[in-house]
Design a protein that fits this description.
By secondary structure, the protein is of the alpha/beta class. The chain contains 13 helices and 12 strands. Helix 2 packs across helix 3, helix 2 packs antiparallel against helix 4 and helix 7 crosses helix 11.
């Protein structure tokens, strides 16, 4: 038996597929953070500014050691042939006789200034980098969601190209069928938390420009701002709170296009969530996002700016059926999580035999 273990819920669609269509894989669930270990990590991150210490706590040895202990406990109880682990901050097993595989959306890169502060450890930075290096280099194989992440793993940690495979990614959920008919309304939507990182200010400015040019056009920003203020203005509607998944998906399905103007976003699932409804996507030219927007699926901005986004939105004011069918076809051709599962299964079984 090959165990599947995850550090967050993003792995569930993939691991459910692996476990459901093959007796060789078993899903051991999600390992969640330990509150006591997080407090110890916070104390270990002092003395420094309280806000920074809170950020550093999630990169601290006490917190990550707690993850490793819980992973080891579950793996020891299951006694698998190998472990497929969605995460890269700790080894999923302490037993050297059990090989493991890593699935990641990208490693920490101390030399990449685009990494946001909340993803960049301060005091434990060197130790955290060394820990990740140990995890990646100890894996039998590494799977990355994007080619951007694959290149990062090879550059930062010196892995050979044949040791790292890009597998792609897919949507987290689905609520309804694709929509191909034209909408009488002109709406755009941007969904996500951490509004500064998600570029919601850029989306708001572009949406206001569009509304001034096309009266009746509306841009909706939904999600938890995480302390980042964005002003509501004509043509821009804010849903500044955690929004139910069903509501987010309805907004995406009804929109002319989804906006992902992120300053940093390794491989956002929301791209495929929109395309599965036939909704085109406008994305920033950062991280792995451009890889998901193949011809027909939407537009990759030439640069991340409100002007570039405004110009792209202008092209999608008319909600055309042919464009929606092309976006859905791009999603369908990607293969979704089924294609990802096939790639993981093939590599794991080949390297274990």
């Amino acid at each position: 038996m090959i165990a599947c273990l995850a550090k967050n819920d993003r792995a569930r669609p993939l691991f459910s597929l692996l476990a459901s269509d093959s007796r060789q894989f078993q899903d051991l669930g999600v390992v969640h953070g330990d509150a006591k270990a997080l407090k110890l990590g916070f104390l270990a991150s002092l003395p420094q500014a309280i806000a920074q210490a809170k950020l550093d706590a999630r990169f601290s040895a006490p917190y990550l050691d707690a993850f490793e202990r819980e992973c080891a406990r579950r793996v020891e109880a299951a006694q698998p042939r190998a472990v497929v682990y969605w995460g890269a901050t700790n080894r999923p097993t302490r037993n050297p006789a059990i090989p493991y595989y890593i699935i990641t959306d990208g490693p920490y890169d101390p030399n990449d200034a685009s990494f946001p502060p909340e993803w960049r450890p301060n005091r434990p930075g060197a130790a955290y980098l060394a820990r990740q290096r140990d995890v990646y280099r100890g894996a039998l194989h590494v799977f990355t969601l994007s080619e951007w992440a694959r290149q990062k793993v090879m550059q930062v940690h010196g892995l050979a190209p044949e040791a790292v495979t890009r597998i792609g990614w897919g949507p987290i959920g689905q609520f309804g069928e694709p929509r191909f008919c034209n909408s009488k309304n002109c709406s755009f939507v941007s969904i996500g938390s951490e509004w500064k990182r998600k570029g919601m200010d850029i989306a708001a400015e572009a949406g206001a420009r569009l509304a001034a040019e096309f009266p009746g056009a509306e841009t909706v920003l939904a999600g938890d701002p995480a302390g980042f203020a964005v002003a509501e203005r004509p043509g821009v509607r804010l849903m500044a709170q955690r929004t139910p998944a069903e509501t987010c998906h309805r907004l995406m399905r009804d929109a002319n296009a989804l906006i992902v103007a992120s300053r940093f976003d390794a491989s956002p699932h929301v791209i495929y969530e929109a395309m599965q409804y036939g909704t085109p996507v406008l994305v920033s030219p950062r991280c792995g996002m451009p890889e998901a927007v193949t011809p027909g699926a939407g537009t990759v901005l030439p640069e991340l700016s409100s002007e570039a986004l405004h110009q792209a939105m202008r092209e999608y004011v008319d909600d055309r059926e042919d464009r929606r069918r092309a976006a859905f076809a791009a999603y369908r051709d990607s293969g979704g999580w089924a294609a990802v599962a096939d790639k993981v299964r093939a590599v794991v079984l080949a390297t274990l035999d």
